[in-house]
Amino acid sequence: MSSTSQKHKEFVAEPMGEKLVNALAGIGEVLGKRLEEKGFDKAYVVLGQFLVLKKDEELFRDWLKDTCGANVKQQGDCYGCLREWCDSFL
């Protein structure tokens, strides 16, 4: 497995609370703005979509690509971040 970013480590280290969507690994300023424009302004809203998709990697990656244009690395970083967060807190 590839190493995780500092952003990933910080995100999965604590409860999500009211963190903005760009607190998610793989989601920077540009993708964050695109997600916000579609109503996904907080990390927990993206988590909701992740759970609606039953934590399925392929479905979530496709959704992220279609919703904000995330590339393969960004998709994987965001998926891994949410998966690990769920493993720790759900």
From TrEMBL:
InterPro entries: BAF (IPR051387), BAF_prot (IPR004122), BAF_sf (IPR036617). This is Barrier-to-autointegration factor. Belongs to the BAF family. One of its GO terms (molecular function) is DNA binding. It is found in: Chromosome; Cytoplasm; Nucleus envelope. It comes from Oncorhynchus tshawytscha (Chinook salmon). It holds the Pfam family SAM_BAF. Keywords: Chromosome, Cytoplasm, DNA-binding, Nucleus. One of its GO terms (biological process) is chromosome organization. GO terms for cellular component: condensed chromosome; cytoplasm; nuclear envelope. Coiled coil: none annotated. Signal peptide: none annotated.
